[in-house]
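Q: Could you fold this chain for me?
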Amino acid sequence: MANKSTVCILDDEPIVGDRLKPEMEDDGYEVEVFTDSASAIQRLAERCFDIFITDLKMEGVDGMGFLEKVKEYCPRSEVIIITGYATIETARESFVRGAYDFIAKPFRIGEIRDAVKKARRRVRRNNKRGRSRRERHA
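A: Sure. Below is the predicted structure, expressed as structure tokens.
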């Protein structure tokens, strides 16, 4: 499939990536999985993924810090926060910092699939607008 959408999954619990990666690949996405934020940030410096799915609570840089890095390096990418520590305050903070969605664990695969599908539409729309602006100013 040409022009595959890309997904980066960051969660310190390997089972999350083990569960999500094959589901996302079955849906046609190119997927990379990381279990520590340092490795994911290193990869982020090399490549912007269309969609990032990140846990909130992790050693080192947490999900909020990773969200900020994504928005700094890849402003057109969308970020979905997943967490076992969902509160109104953390959800609000994640949206203020630019998260696309906030999903509590335990989640259903369908919830993630729906969020990723909607995020992909937004990324494509934003990329199309960005190209159009660049082309007009060329």
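A (continued): The chain has one domain: 6-137.
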